[in-house]
Amino acid sequence: MDTKTVVAEKESSLLDAEELMRAPAAAPLVTFPLEVRVTEASRQTPAVGQRAIRPDARLHGLGQTRYIDDFYLPGMLYAKIKRAGVASARIISVDTKEAEAMPGVMAVITGRDIPVNSFGPSLKDQPVLADERVFYAGDGVAAVAAVTEQIAAEALDKIKVEYEELTPVLDPLESLKLETPGVHAPSANIYGHKIIKKGDVEKGFAESYRIFEGTFRTQMVEHVPLEPHASVATWDANGRLTVYSTLGRITLGRADIARTVGIPMSRVRVVATIVGGNFGGKNEITTEPVVALLSKKTGRPVKCTFTRPEEFLSSTTRHPLIMDYKTGVTKEGRILARQIRLVLDGGAYCSWSETTLGKACILSAGPYVIDNLYAEAFVVYTNKTMTGAMRGFGAPQVCFAYESHLDDIAKALNIDPLEIRMLNALREGSLSPTGQTLHSVAVRESLMQAAQRFGWNEKSNGHGAQA
Amino acid sequence: MKRRGRGIACMWYPIGFTVAANPSAAVVKVNEDGTATLLTGTVETGQGSLTILAQIVAQELGIATEDVHVVSADTDTTPMDTGAIASRTTYVTGNAARLAAEKAKLMMFDVAAPLLKVKPNQLEAKDHRIFVKGYPQRNMHIGDVANHARIVTGEPPIGSGYFNPATVALDPETGQGKPFATYVYATQIAEVDVDDETGEVEVLRVVASHDCGTPINPMLVEGQVEGGISMGVGFALQEEMLFDAKGRNINPNLTNYIMPTSLDMPDIQVDIVDNYDETGPFGAKGVGEPTCVSTAAAILNAIHDAVGVRVTSLPATAEKVYAAIKAKRAQESKQIAAAG
Question: By the 8 A CB rule, do B53 and B97 touch?
Answer without folding.
Answer: yes
